[in-house]
Amino acid sequence: MTFQQAQSRAARLREEIAGHNRRYYVDNAPVISDFEYDILMQEIMYIEQMFPDLRSADSPTQKPGSDLDAKERGFARYAHKYPMLSLSNTYSEEELIEFDQRIRKGTELPFGYVCELKLDGTAICLSYEQGRLAKALTRGDGSIGDDVVQNILAIKEIPKQLPAGNYPPSFEVRGEVILPFEAFDRLNQSRQQNEESLFANPRNAAAGSLKLLDSAEVAQRGLQCYFHHLPEAQVTATLHSELLRMAASWGLPVLHSITIDGKQETTIQVCRNMEEALAFIRHWNKKRTSLPFAIDGVVVKVNELALQLALGMTAKSPRWATAFKYKAEQAETRLLSVDYQVGRTGSITPVANLSPVLLSGTVVKRASLHNADQIALLDIRLSDTVLVEKGGEIIPKITGVLTQFRPLEAPPIAFITHCPQCGSLLVKEEQEAKSFCPNIWECPPQIMGRILHFMSRKAMNILGGEALVEQLFKRGWVHKGSDLYKLTKEQLLGLDNFGEKSAQNLLTSIADSLSAPFSRVLFGLGIRHVGEATAKYLASRFGAIEALEQASEKELTESPEVGEVLARSIRNFFAQPVNQILIQELTDCGIQMREAPRNRISDALLNKQIVISGNFSISREAIKELIEQHGGKTTGQPSAQTDYLLAGAKAGPAKLQKAAKLQLKIISQEELNSLINNGQ
User: Fold this and answer.
1) Residue 505 φ then ψ, to 5°
2) Cα separations (Å) of 578 from 58, 60, 603, 621?
3) Where are the alpha helices (DSSP H) in 393-531?
4) How many CA atoms within 13 Å lie on the side-chain side of 362?
5) 487 neighbors 591 (Cβ within 8 angstroms)
6) With 0-12 CB in 10 A as exposed, 13-18 as middle and 19+ as buried, what is 81?
7) Which among 200, 206, 203 has a CA at the least distance from the CA of 222?
8) pLDDT at 399
9) pLDDT digits (tens, 9 = 90+) for 201-245
10) Which of 304, 309, 311, 629 is such that its CA lies 20 to 30 A from the CA of 650?
């Protein structure tokens, strides 16, 4: 490889890795496996070793990936007291032995290792002051992180105030936020029912959950957190293992062991040498599929703190620790056929039917093929031998095709052109990956899917499942949510497996649903791209169905939580006459079509529109609530209708410039308080 070839390849690799970093850390939607990503990293490391002049400060080999989003997310940002670096990693036992040999060459002192399960989650750094939780910073770019303390407090294991103990007056503790398999499966099932994009694995779900603006939603997700590091702790200790025991004694969750199949298994092991460390790694490679959460390897750390300090760190990772990563478990099987499922919004999902194969302790028979683009990308054909693995050990996915085993006449998969249920010609919008059936009011799976969604627990919470909805639909009694309120006991008593009690219970739950808050009604309408959290935001932002229905696409996108795709979806929903009839019928039934009024403290900011930008002494959500309590409204972007721009630390330059151009009044948090206190 010439210098020019290396320079060109390194530039392409940096661009490719930067894109993968964003998809992994910011979007929480990676498109390649960790193993494939590590191969790219190894290639650029090799190029930089061969041509040192190509190494630069902005190379991915010199800095960790960043979870900081350029868009304002409502979180204050702070500098880390100590950099949050990433770990070097290997998939090879030989390289782990070389890691041990490098350390032994540099010291004559005896030392050992601490081996810990490498939890597959997202890193967090907590700061405690006088035993009270003060900040919770994400890794960010390693130097600066987002303060997600309100979301961290939604994790029940995290103590807001430590009990009395001998902890330092001020200290940091670092750990991993994870989402157990059971909670992950429950979350994805809910998202699938709502036709929201699924999280690829628990790690992405945990990272995405920490960046939610609604801490109440975070509390429902079932996150857990375990700590593994105390940087520069002001306590008397000589070993890393001692620090972990101290942290646990202070009331912080540290995962020392776990019960599997009735047996207590050690998850943090002090090892005298690398041979013992390798035995621990091999043990957990066999046991990892029995864990209730995802791990992707084992972290090996020098136990002696003095040696850790002497070894120091590179620009990107500590020299005294490394991660041994497990390869994802794969299985070979044969593609038998492809089915096509129709969702409640008309989305068409191809599903591969496979020869049954045992994978991670369960028999896999089906796997999603996602969309036509994915089929083309894999170049998958009927009767192909395919590689299947479980994303995050939960969701089966086809990751490759073994073309050397392909039958000579294996036919390509021709993606369907018409709906498999109603025969309508499918449509595919340019910005969409999926094809859709446009026959929304006559296609049976869409009709029944919308009714089920309307009845779901997080929407109207009406008793009943697929069997009930199918009977009601086939008898012609229910075609939309509002039809449920017309059902009679006599009708219900004629259904299969329905007696007096079950009929009365259903009618009672239908009556009770009339008091469901507007946000749940809005979620139940099934507007495409409007999930539970978005429905809550829209209900709070617009207050009533009439205001949302009349909002233009421009007015919608002025809200920070509404992008162009969502705005178009909302406008398209309200533009359809059938949806207008549905809303009118629901209104006539007495369903809540406006947000319940909040307790207003005063009218000091009555009808004032305020744009918020920057960081404040309290959270962004608390600022919004304060404004609303005094009669004001918050909007996302400055406009001619805006009364004030509330600017805090690090206010967005674009908003400040636009406010100045519109000659808007820019106020501080103190001036806002003065407006409220003076009633002006």
Assistant:
1) -60, -40
2) 54, 52, 39, 36
3) 444-455, 466-474, 489-493, 500-512, 518-524
4) 12
5) no
6) middle
7) 206
8) 83
9) 788 889 888 888 777 788 889 999 999 999 876 678 999 999 999
10) 629
Structure-token match 């049976």, residue found: 444
Residue 1 exposure: Cα atoms within 13 Å on the Cβ side: 14
Q: Which pLDDT value is given to residue 392?
A: 47
Residue in this structure with the two tokens 């233009």, named with its chain if needed: 552
Which pLDDT does position 67 carry in this prediction?
A: 63
* pLDDT of res. 195: 64
**Partners of 333 in the beta sheet?**
386
- Reading the block at residue 516, the tokens are 């469901």
- In angstroms, the CA 26 to CA 18 distance is 11
3-state secondary structure of 257: strand
Closest listed residue to residue 307, CA positions, set 106, 503, 498: 106
Per-residue confidence (pLDDT) for residue 393, from 0 to 100: 44
Tokens of 380: 């998958």
Q: Exposed, middle or buried, 671 (CB in 10 Å: 0-12/13-18/19+)?
A: middle
Residue with tokens 């099987």: 333
Q: For residue 225, what are its two tokens?
A: 């957190």
Sequence length of the chain is: 680
Cβ-contact 133, 149 below 8 angstroms: yes
Question: Which entry of 71, 81, 105, 118 is annotated as an active-site residue?
Answer: 118
Spatial CA neighbour of 624 closest among 217, 221, 213: 213
The rounded average pLDDT for each run of 10 residues, N- to C-terminus, in the chain (680 residues) is 81 80 68 70 82 77 64 73 88 93 90 96 94 92 88 91 89 94 85 71 86 81 94 83 94 94 93 96 91 92 94 87 87 93 89 87 82 87 90 68 91 93 90 85 92 92 91 94 95 90 93 93 91 84 91 83 86 92 94 79 85 82 82 79 87 82 90 82
pLDDT number for residue 72:
46
Query: Torsion over CA of 373, 376, 381 and 385, rounded to 10 degrees?
Result: -90
Burial of 93 (0-12, 13-18, 19+ CB in 10 A): middle
Alpha helices in 133-180 (DSSP H): 149-152
CA atoms within 13 A on the CB side of 464: 32
Question: How many angstroms separate the Cα of 489 from the Cα of each of 202, 492, 495?
Answer: 44, 5, 10
Residues 265 and 257: beta-carbon distance below 8 Å? yes
Calculate Rg over the CA atoms of the chain. 28
Give residue 416's identity as a one-letter amino acid code. Answer: I
Structure-block tokens of residue 317: 């990772």
Return d(Cα 664, Cα 641) in angstroms, integer.
10
Q: Is 105 exposed, middle or buried (0-12, 13-18, 19+ CB in 10 A)?
A: exposed
| 118 catalytic per annotation | yes
* Residue whose pair of structure tokens reads 């103990």 in the numeric block: 165
Give dist(CA 434, CA 445) in Å, integer.
Answer: 17
Q: Which two tokens stand for residue 249?
A: 């004694």
Residues in CB range of 383: below 8 A, 6 or more apart: 334, 335, 336, 406, 407, 410
Q: What phi and psi, each to the nearest 5 degrees, are found at residue 103?
A: -70, -40
Q: Is 608 exposed, middle or buried (0-12, 13-18, 19+ CB in 10 A)?
A: middle
Angle at which helix 3-21 crosses helix 34-50, to 10 degrees, equals 150
Q: Which two tokens stand for residue 507?
A: 């009618």
Cβ-contact 246, 193 below 8 angstroms: no
Q: Which two tokens stand for residue 33?
A: 């496996």
Task: For residue 179, give Cα distances in angstroms to 18, 33, 183, 188, 672.
Answer: 26, 19, 6, 12, 39
How many separate helices (H) and strands (E) can be counted in the chain? 24, 22
The pLDDT value recorded for residue 473 is 95
Strands (E), 68-216: 77-79, 89-90, 113-119, 122-129, 132-138, 144-146, 170-178
Q: What is the pLDDT of residue 582?
A: 94
